[in-house]
Structures are given as structure tokens and as C-alpha cells.
Amino acid sequence: MSSARWSGWSARLGSGFRARSVVAAGAAVALLVAAGCGGSDEAGGASDGTVTLTVKTFGQFGYEDLIKQYESSHPGIKIKQDSIAQLDDYTPKLQQWLTAGSGAGDIVALEEGILVKLMAKPDQFANLLDYGAGELKGNFLDWKWKQALTADGTKLVGLGTDVGAQGMCYRTDLFAKAGLPTDRAKVGELWPTWDAYLATGKRFVAAGTGASFFDTAGGIYQNILMQQGDTTYFDRDNKLIVDTNPGVRKAWDQTVSMIDAGLSGKLQMWGPAWNAGFKKGTFATIPCPAWMLGIIKEQAGAENAGKWDVARVPGEGAVRGGSFLAVPAQSKHPKEAAELAKFLTSPEGQTAAFKAKNNFPSSPQAIDDPAVSGAVNAYFNNAPVGKIFGQSAKSLKPVYLGPENQLVGDAVGDALTAIEQGKLKPEEAWTKALTDSKRAVDK
Amino acid sequence: MSAPGQATGEQSGAHTQPVPDSPGTRSVGAASRLDAVGGEGQGGRGRLRAAAGTGTVGSGGGLSAGRRGLWSRLDLYGSPYLFIAPFFVLFTAFGLFPLVYTAWVSLRAWDLTGDAGFVGLDNYSRLLADPDFWNALVNTLGLFVLATVPQLLLALIVAALLNRPIRALLLFRLGVLAPIVTSVAAVAIVFGQLYGRDTGLVNGILGLIGIDPIDWQASRTSSWIAVASMVNWRWTGYNALIYLAAIQAIPRDLYEAAQIDGAGAIRQFRSITVPLIRPALIFTVVMSTIGGMQLFTEPLLFGQGDVSGGSLRQFQTIAMYMFEQSFQNFDYGYGSAIAWMIFLLTVIVGVANALIGRRLRGGTQ
């Protein structure tokens, strides 16, 4: 599930309004850690030879129909799905299950940010290559496959489910006011690159509509960064290269020049002003993953139907997060679990999940399936979102993140916010981001 | 901790167990004593009565005198411990165990990938060299001062006003309680809107008197003021009611005597009211200290759920830092070390407050 949570610093911004976690936070650390020691009956083998597989997910994976289908085609397999609504609540539990050696069931969903951390200890999961997953490589986008594969290529921890494929949402009425084209193909042509996006932004601001060009610099930065390819904050030996990687600096500099040009609305993602901004039109563009379309529709309301549209992102593709299915080493039925995971992440399974809950597939075959590629969104002027997001996901080059990716992403993101707030000059903020990153990683 | 009523119920249930084993040994006096004590739990009362009755019928059963003596001694010296046991059982499970377990975890390197073993005091030495920790400490103490001092002074004034004969007194007395029964999330949402940068009411009012809009979250001072105002709004009424209760326990004739001596209202307040409600003052200071050291929800929600408390951590409290390390960075060992530092900090500030309180007592009496 990519919904609302992605890797990188945006994961923190994605936290939204978490009243439940807030209440839970009153409990001591140890209470929560200790609470994981309990575990339910995991054996799952009945005397009649029926195997019960437990699938642990968070949010909405859209697997209900697929599970029924699998049970009817595989007599002798019973499937129990335990879903926890919030990823914030799911992650500590997952950690407890893995530490306690029980409770994780037979299949667990791993969000990208968690997966990159767990890749440091692949032994906690069954090697899916041992269960014949190797031949499925072609069923997944190359970078998605590689994210769950150890550096030496001998262990496969998870199979990809969805990706947060991304487009650039924009307000047609604000574009018209600023004398910019409103047709999505023409809008896409305005920004083949991020420099062109900056130039368009300057034109927009000069037109004086009263709105800012984008909501917050953080989202833009993350988007540019993920297009730099190969590595971001860490090299493949997990050495921190944030200070030497030219890609990071380039993404930073481009973002800072956009702040300097006054394009940013300096809004806090998920804050009240940000939410209201969709309706009031306080910003003209926002990088939008597939799942954000629902949020925009909800926030902007029916009266603004057709005012928002989706175009391609500047640069080459964009994805924010996504998820995987893995089989914990503690599963009593790894073989059956691996088969089920293969089924759920198959192109057909991913297409069904897209139909059920709009989770955008990570399988090129599913992306090309007419049910996905032909999908349009009525609220966004019938934008062919399946095609736009599909191209975005397919054109992205693989990026290696590293287990501590999010810590560094938080440090850089906070530094960018400090520039927006006028608290730090860009060079001070950069130095601070580097210092904070080093300190967060060296412990 | 558990509600007293719940503990009493379990207590009387547990107590009935030795009774069937000792038919005839219990004197009527003992039974009625127990009855009186156990009477608070509804279930236990009937059972004790029944057991006592059985005992009377079967008195003279074949128990040796020695055993009988042992039982009554056990009953006399042992049963009080049974009565207080539920609290200690619950405290051990939910108070002491987490405390000790947290201490144990804080000596280990433990992250999302599991327990990586004993590291001694590494987490603590790392903590002492961690500028973010000291920053959170300064924020916590600063917010504590900003949120507690005005709150208690204001509460004292409100209590004094509520003690006067005014119209619709009950309405006002209940009114000051309204902020406490308001959900803290609702408080934070409303205050978040009030302190909005672009469309907030506070900036709107400041605009009327010609002050430029303030980005409340951006700087340390403004964010502290905003968070402290939330805490003050929420807890002033609660403290005022405690003060009011204490004030009403002061004998009226002291005021009458002071009046005859020619003392005005303010003099009466300073020389009679404040010294005589000192226990209530100390209580509220201690409670505010505990609350202030653990301040979490208000600053978290003020930052829209951002545990780092602003771009430069300008309003991150130490409890938020613990949460960030434990549940966002999944560094459980380090988070546990921070949790212990919060505990120590609370103890230190609490002891300091107690010492100041004692000095005050020495000074005025």
C-alpha cells in the first residue's frame, strides 16, 4: 500500500493527523515493546490437512476477492487476512512479531520505507528465490524487483504489490488566469524538465493570480531526487554519500532556486491550510501519487469538479513509495505462503487490486492491462490517469535507498522547511542537513 | 492506575478464598470485622456472610488448636496484605515492570531488525552528547515555565473570584471545568486554526493593530507561546477548582477576625487564603511538574503530527523526542534511555519543587 505513506522524508509529512497514535504515545516505550511478546496460535495446521495461512496487511490492499478466488481454486488452503488500518500502528506490531518469533503469520505486507530497513537483516524472511520466484522477475518493474533483492542478488525478501506512481496535478482555472495552456498534453509540454517547470512557475507568479505555484518544496525536492537515478543518500555499501552525491546536491539546488523564485506556498502538508488549499486554489500545482487523487477530490469538493487535472511530471517518471509482500521465516507453511504471495502479486492479482482499491500496479503487464491503462478519472476532466501514471512508473530508473534513508530524508526535508520559513539561509540549511544526517547515521 | 472501585472488587473476591478452609475457626467478631471491611465490594459481602454462617454451624470441627491459632494469626496479620495486594499487583504489572524493562532495553542496541545485544551505557553517553536531546530538554523546561506559572497564578485568581457571591455561581464553577472535558485533539485542532499563518484568527486580530502576520510554528518564541496557551487554557480551570475546594475549607471566622482588624480583600487573600491552601498549591505544582515534563500531545498536534516539532525542532519536547527515536526511527534502546531521562528529570524537578515548598513553609510560619 502506498496510501499516505512513502519512503523518504515525505513519510513523516504523510503522518497526517494521528489522534490514535497520539493517545497510544502516552504509554511507555517498554510497554509497547513488551506487549509484543504475546502471540496467537500460529501453527495453522488442522488435523484434516487444511492449511490456514495468515496474511497481515495495513490500510487497504484490496485482496478480499482475490482471497476468495484463491481459496476456491485451492481446496485445503484457508486464508485469514488481518488488516490494521494505520501503517503507524502496523509497523511497531510487525517489529514485535519479528522480535518475538511469532505472530507475524505467513505473509506480511512491508511498506517500502520499512522494507529498506529490513533488508539489513534478510534472514527474518524466507528467500522467495527458493520457492521459484526467480522466474517471475519479468512480472515486475526492474527497480521494484531490485528493491527487495539483496545486494549480492542471492536473496529475495519480498514481491512488489503497488507503487505510488505519480503525476502533476494542476488547477485549470488558475492556469487560464495566468495565461497558461490548460489542456493536459500542452501543460505536460510546458515542463519536459524541472528547469522548464521553474520557468513556468516564474511565468505563473508574474501573472499575479494570488496563488503560489506549488504547495511545499518538500514534495518537489523528493520528486527531483528520485529521478537522479542509481543512488541518493547511500551507496550500495550503505555508506552515507549525501555530501558527495551530485544528484542530491542537484535536487537541492533546483528546489532552492524554486523557493528563491517565490514559487512555494510554504504550506505544511496535511495541515489545515494545505487541506483547504485544494478548495480555495491557494496553489496551482502539486505532485500527486495515484492515491492522492482521492484526497484532492475530497478536499476540493464537488463544486470544484473539473478544475483539477493531471499532467505528466517534469523529468523522467516519478514514484513515491509502494509496498511488498514477504513471507516471514517464522511461517510454518513457507511453501504455501510463497505460492499465495506469488498469486497476490501476479499481474492479474495487481490488476484486481487496482480495480478494488486503486492501488497502482508494479507489474508492467498489469500496467498495460486495459483495466489499468484505460482508467480515467471523471473528477479530473476524465484524465487518462492509468496511462499517465503507467508511463511515470515505467520510465523511472531504479534507485537504491539504503536502510537509514528516512533519517537522512527527514534531516534534509526539515532544512528545506527552515529555508521556506526564512529561518536559515540555503547554505546554512545545507550544512545543517549534512551535520544532522551524519549524526543520525553515526550512532 | 486502576480505579479504586475495581481494586476493591477483586480484593473481596480474593479474600473469600481462605474462609472455606477454616470452618469453625473464625469467631463472630472476626467475621463481622471482615464483613465491615469487605463491605465495599458488593460481591464479597454476601459470600463472607455465608461463609461466616457455615462456620458457626460447623464450629467444633476437628481442627487442632495449633492450626486454629495459625489461621487466626494469618488472618490477623496476613489479610491486610491481601486487601492491598491488587494495587501492588497492578502496579507491578503496569508500573514497575515497564520501568525496569525500559531500563533493561535502554542498555541494549535494539532497532527494527531486532535486539542486537548489550551495549552498556552507550545509549546514555550518546544521549548526553546529542544536541537534539538538549534542545528538547530546553524546550520542555521552557514550555513548563511558560505553561505552569501563568496557569497556577491565573487559577488562584479564578478560585478567589469564584469564592465570592456572584450571580450564576454554579454555572461559572462548572464552566471552568469545560476545557478539561474537551478532547485534547479538538483543542489542538481549534488552536491550530487560531494560530494559522495565513488565515488564523490570532494573526487577524494582530493585523487590526498593525502587526504583520506571524508564522507561529516557525520560531521558537512564537511556537512556545502558542503551545503554552493551549496547555494553560486546558488546565487553569482544573487547578482553580482544586484551589476553590481548599479555600472553602478555610474557617470563615479567620476572615471575620481579619476584617475586624481592618484587613482588606487583598491582604486577606495574601495572609490567610494563600498560606492556608499551601497543601493544595504544592499538589498542583507537583501535578503540573509531572504533566509539564511529559508534555506531548499539545506540541505534537500544534505541529500537525510532526514529532520533530518544527523544522529546527523549535518546539520538540523530550517526550516527543522519545517518541521520534522509538517509533519513527525504531531505535528502541535509545528511546528507552530517553524515557529514563524523562523519569529522572521529573524526579529532579519534583524534588526541587518540594524543597522550595518546604522553604516557603519555613518562611511564612
Give me a quick take on this structure.
The complex is a heterodimer of chains A (443) and B (365). Chain A is an alpha/beta fold. Chain A contains 21 helices and ten strands.
Describe this structure in words.
The complex is a heterodimer of chains A (443) and B (365). Chain A has 443 residues and is of the alpha/beta class. Chain A contains 21 helices and ten strands. In chain A, strand 1 (51-58), helix 4 (64-73) and strand 2 form a beta-alpha-beta unit. By secondary structure, chain B is mainly alpha-helical. In chain B, 73% of the residues lie in helices and 2% in strands. In chain B, strands 1-2 form a two-stranded antiparallel sheet. The longest helix of chain B is centred in the first third of the chain and has 41 residues, at 65-105. Chains A and B meet through helix 2, helix 3, helix 5, helix 6 and helix 13 of A and helix 4, helix 9, helix 15, helix 16 and helix 17 of B.
Layout of strands and helices, then pairs:
The complex is a heterodimer of chains A (443) and B (365).
Chain A: H1 10-13, H2 19-24, H3 29-35, E1 51-58, H4 64-73, E2 77-84, H5 87-100, E3 107-111, H6 112-118, H7 142-147, E4 158-171, H8 172-177, H9 184-190, H10 194-206, E5 212-214, H11 217-226, E6 230-231, H12 246-260, H13 272-280, E7 283-289, H14 292-300, E8 308-311, E9 319-326, H15 334-344, H16 347-357, H17 364-368, H18 370-373, H19 385-395, E10 399-400, H20 405-420, H21 426-441
Parallel strand pairs in A: 1-2, 1-3, 5-7, 6-10
Antiparallel strand pairs in A: 3-9, 4-7, 4-8, 4-9
Helix pairs in contact in A: 11-12, 20-21
Chain B: H1 4-15, H2 28-38, H3 42-57, H4 65-105, E1 108-111, E2 114-118, H5 122-128, H6 131-162, H7 169-175, H8 178-181, H9 184-194, H10 201-208, H11 220-248, H12 252-260, H13 265-276, H14 278-293, H15 297-302, H16 318-328, H17 332-364
Antiparallel strand pairs in B: 1-2
Organism (chain A): Kribbella antiqua
Protein name (chain A): Cellobiose transport system substrate-binding protein
InterPro entries (chain A): Bact_solute-bd_prot1, SBP
